[in-house]
Amino acid sequence: MASKYFSLFSLAFIVLLSLLFAHSISASDHTNKKNSSVEFLKHLQGCHKGDKVKGIFQLKKYLEQFGYLNYKIAKSRTHENDDDFDDLLESAVKTYQLNFHVQPSGVLDRKTLSRMAKPRCGIADIVNGTNLMQSTVKSHHHNGPYHFSFFPGRQRWPPARTQLTFAFLPGTRTDAMEPVAKAFQTWQANTHFRFSRVQDSRNARSVFLDVIMEMGPHSMGLVES
Question: Is residue 207 part of a domain?
């Protein structure tokens, strides 16, 4: 029974841990990167189809990165590498606005630019024509789409299991260990779980969570580390 619960729930811990680790490891230089990467947005408020404004090209690259714009499959690639606000860009902006619950006007208004300026995951919202933001699971108590499913049988975490051990597997980067340990401390401070590190990862009987940094397929053929 213990191994069954481990296989079902350890994945959830690993996913949450990777998110906390990514936040911790990049906290020191996040502000500078954010400011430089979205600086071009400042000059685009009010822009719409037909305009030609410096920074539009960077906006196209931004929307292309997240799957909203793809000149390679368009009938015309005339404005792929310029600052012209063309039909394709307007369509991409409208789709972005719909996904983030902004009025789909196609105009770069304050709400749209504010949303674009926020930090976010690097995984695309639209992959191979599939809009991952449009979930079929909805709730009357939630304003956005859900991106999860329950395990078969809707298993529940054993109430008595609150003491959890973890160990870093061989090959784990040393600079990753401290942020991961801090992430566990954050969980411990905000939940009823208690985490303790086991130094010898080979002692499988005493380790509940294995921690290792690897690279592999993330979804729809994308690769994430």
Answer: yes
pLDDT tens digits along 106-145: 999 999 999 999 888 888 899 888 888 875 444 444 444 4
- 146, β-bridge pairs: none
Q: 127 pairs with which residues across the strands?
A: 130
Which of 95, 118, 141 delimits the end of a domain? 118
Higher pLDDT, 145 or 208: 208
CA–CA dist 199, 80 (Å, integer): 54
Question: pLDDT, tens digit, for every residue of 19-63?
Answer: 555 545 444 444 444 445 678 888 899 999 999 999 999 999 999
Q: 74: which 2 tokens?
A: 């368009």
CB atoms under 10 Å from CB of 147, counted, come to 9
47 is in an annotated binding site: no
Question: Tokens for 40?
Answer: 């071009």
At what angle are helices 2-25 and 174-190 packed, to 10 degrees?
110
Report the CATH number at residue 88: 1.10.101.10
Element (DSSP H or E) covering residue 209? strand 209-211
Tokens 């009025």, located at residue = 103
210 bridge partner residues: 167
